[in-house]
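Justification of computing resources. Each target in the renewal requires a structure prediction run like the one illustrated here; the chain below, 294 residues long, is used simply to show the kind of job we budget for.
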Amino acid sequence: RREIERPAADEVVAAADERDHDREVLAVSPVDEGVEGVDPPEEPADDDESRKTCAVERTTCSRCGLASRAPWRPQDSEQGADELVFLDITASSSDRSTMLDVVSRTAEEVFIPLTVGGGVRGVEDFDRLLRAGADKVGVNTAAIARPELLREAAERFGAQCVVLSVDARRVPADARPTASGFEVTTHGGRQGTGLDAISWIERAVGLGAGEVLLNSMDADGTKAGFDTAMIAAARAVAPVPVIASGGAGAVADFAPAVAAGADAVLAASVFHFGELTIADVKAALAAQGVPVRR
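Resulting structure tokens:
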């Protein structure tokens, strides 16, 4: 198994979720184009504090007129985002491939590592996405169906390009229990698998996954805080970087996720709709003694 060095400081990763109904907005040019008939919001402040982050920004874009604030704009990467994650989250459930044109146009506008996931079914998809401009490729459903895909991709492109995306939840009371109490879901959390999430992470890393994007489906959208128990369980079996996602609602939510073992912390609407800023999160993390990229 190839060991992937964990970062010395937690990173800021900006992520965008793509859904069928979001296609039109997300397909616009990443620079200065908003939605017809809607005035774009004011530019975020460009101050020193906003350049010191250690969180992951996950942004949802829909027909809300906020396309011009999407985190893949160069201005946002300059304000502290260390990476960008683009998730075509309904690609598997709707059986479509990730939009290569959006990936390519995004890669042309940002100068930070770009991870793309959704609809990845084989090594050929890894190749297409990497050639389109992605630095790393996330895979979930296809890896569950055929775990050897992880090994094949790692051997061809390097483990550092292979991101295991895990949508996990606590096993429902009416379902068969797992050893860890967590199970993997697929198709955007719509389908339970009965597969133990922590055992799956351990196996996937052994096969070649160089990073784990761990999303708590129970916490996602609740703004009640990250699932620290799930993060800690994943950390115990994964010697590679772990990105925690799901549940952020306040700046105080991020430090506990890092303390539980996350190398990066990802949030969604709280960033996109201006409830929190990257600077807010970085300042709060720094105040708790968490190393941040500056």
